[in-house]
Amino acid sequence: MRHFTCVQDLGDLKQALNEAFEIKKDRFQFSELGKNKTLLMIFFNSSLRTRLSTQKAAMNLGMNTIVLDVNQGAWKLETERGVIMDGDKPEHLLEAVPVMGCYCDVIGVRSFARFENKEDDYNEKILSQFIEHSDRPVFSMEAATRHPLQSFADLITIEEYKKTARPKVVMTWAPHPKSLPQAVPNSFAEWMNATDYEFVITHPEGYELDPRFVGNAKVEYDQKKAFEGADFIYAKNWSAYKDPNYGQVISTDRSWTVDAKKMALTNNAYFMHCLPVRRNMIVTDDVIESPQSIVIPEAANREISAQTVLKKILMGLSNL
Ligand code: CP
């Protein structure tokens, strides 16, 4: 594997899951694979889980790691070509990216949607420039439209906890005071559609996701109806995708908060969220603290998804 930005990059999903479970049995069995190789992790946005889990995964593989927060200590980057650079941005991405590539073997990039231009966001303007100009394998640590390391960890977690071969998985919109990207729900939908699970998406009208990610999922506007018989509830907020409201909060309706009453409609479902989560907006304290909440094992699996992806990239490098 050269680059990792979406589920298709992994190839055979069942095989990738098997690799992940092998790594989980002994995460140090490939500790020679990354010897003398350097991972550079570039953050345009904040992170707790992605930063720690990806660094740990790289260390398990014997890699060296460098972490750069672009907005803290680096030169402010211009990303538009053709701009007369007489403002507050002294360096252009078109020089910065190949320079970064000189100091490492693999690059991870976190760059969220900016909500300035939908086309730029959905064309992955920043991530694609790293792929084009770094001359290194690049993987997404959450980009504008997808968060594949999170979705892979979500899938690993569902496989570990599922009680039937084809569980009912429900992704529900839940309220949040700020405007959040669609990357996590897009990506989760993409990965769920790559399985044979029963997959349902529920949200208020106006929060329809890009149909390319919704795929064959059932969209149910009645949240309670969607929860009936669910084996997994995956909660997430996202801002509007549809024009003219792209990137906007069009509702903070607290009747969509996941609470114990709604969870009682399910098949004793497990509760999932990628974290960070705003308690009593997205989910009530009692649900996230209940035995059915698997948000911590889900976060723990971020190390496993990152290590599986890095291992595949390193194996690709050694086959060159
Ligand atoms: N879920 C996730 O990506 O967490 P961070 O934003 O803290 O990395």
Task: Describe the protein's architecture and organization.
The protein has helices at 13-25, 49-60, 93-102, 118-122, 125-133, 148-161, 183-193, 211-214, 223-227, 260-263, 285-288, 295-318, and strands spanning 38-43, 64-69, 77-78, 91-92, 106-110, 138-140, 168-173, 198-202, 218-220, 232-236, 270-272. It has 320 residues and is an alpha/beta fold. A five-stranded parallel β-sheet has the order 9-8-7-10-11. α2 links the parallel β1 and β2 (64-69). 43% of the residues are buried. The model has no long low-confidence stretch (mean pLDDT 97). It binds phosphoric acid mono(formamide)ester. Phosphoric acid mono(formamide)ester is lined by residues 47-50, 142, 150, 274-276. Pfam families: OTCace (PF00185), OTCace_N (PF02729). Its EC number is 2.1.3.11. InterPro entries: ArgF'-like, Asp/Orn_carbamoyltranf_P-bd, Asp/Orn_carbamoylTrfase, Asp/Orn_carbamoylTrfase_sf, Asp_carbamoyltransf_Asp/Orn-bd.
Keywords:
320 residues, binds phosphoric acid mono(formamide)ester, ornithine carbamoyltransferase activity, five-stranded parallel β-sheet, ArgF'-like, transferase, Asp/Orn_carbamoylTrfase, alpha/beta, Rossmann fold, single chain, Asp/Orn_carbamoylTrfase_sf, four-stranded parallel β-sheet, globular
CATH homologous superfamily assignment of the largest domain: Aspartate/ornithine carbamoyltransferase
The count of domains is: 2
Strand order of the largest sheet: 9-8-7-10-11
CATH T-level fold name of the largest domain: Rossmann fold
Shape: globular
Roughly what percent helix? 25-40%
Known CATH architecture of the largest domain:
3-Layer(aba) Sandwich
CATH class of the largest domain: Alpha Beta
Radius of gyration, whole Å: 20 Å
Task: Please mark out the parts with pLDDT under 50 across 5 or more consecutive residues, or reply none.
Answer: none
Question: What percent strand?
Answer: 5-15%
The separation of the N and C termini measures 11 Å
One letter per element, helices H and strands E, the order comes to HEHEEEHEHHEHEHEHEHEHEHH
Number of H- or I-type helical stretches: 12
Q: Report the bound ligands by name, code or SMILES.
A: phosphoric acid mono(formamide)ester
**Class from helix and strand fractions:** alpha/beta
